[in-house]
Amino acid sequence: MKRSPTFLYSMLSFGFAFLYLPILVLMAYSFNDSRLATVWGGFSTRWYSALLDNDQILDAAWLSLEIAVISATAATVMGTLAALALNRMGRYRGRTLFTGMIAAPLVMPEVITGLSLLLLFVSLQELTGWPASRGANTITIAHITFSMAYVAVIVQSRLASMDHSLEEAAMDLGGRPFAVTRDITLPLIAPAMAAGWLLAFTLSLDDLVIASFASGAGASTLPMVIFSKVKLGVTPEVNALATIIIGLVSVMVVLAGWSMLRQQRKQAGKA
Fold it and tell me: Most buried of the four, 31, 39, 94, 108, by CB within 10 Å?
């Protein structure tokens, strides 16, 4: 039975409205002059000025960005090495266990992962004295632990679908394995590594549960600060912060789409 276009467009409109209408309402209320986030009191940008003067939110934002960059970079390196080991080393003793360890963070509930890391840090502190206190370092280690699994899966899928004839030709011409990996393999899997880095960066920036277990006094990420404020009631400052984040993400998406469209036009012109 063929459905009418009106029904399909209605369902599509309902779906987009369900997803994006709350975001638009949040952005509109970020310009609210009232102290109550859900009561309109006139147009004003006062809460953006208040946000720039809020040292707690700004410090948490910089800490989250620092942790996200470091953890995404380390997770990309370790995840790529893990993917190479799974894809290129064939069968070896412990491969099944290693595969399970890589896949475990993907299916493990965040509460279990966070609690396990907390117990690990407490045990290490009692045995070795490190870490002296939980903070940015322990959050970074925790984020690397679970985000490298996502990078490994992305890079491994790229390695599995890649044509190995270039690597074989380079080795037939006398190329060393390290040189072939550096000059042939890494450039071919660079898009997958970039995608893995972006995903790890997003996961780290968005994480709340694991960071809450791994953090200590004086080290609060942006999601932790926002969650603590939301429990006391949403303030217009949080709306302003969310609007800024949405604006930055939208600009990045537009730029990425424009870059992809430009590359497609260049390739079409060459063809």
Answer: 31
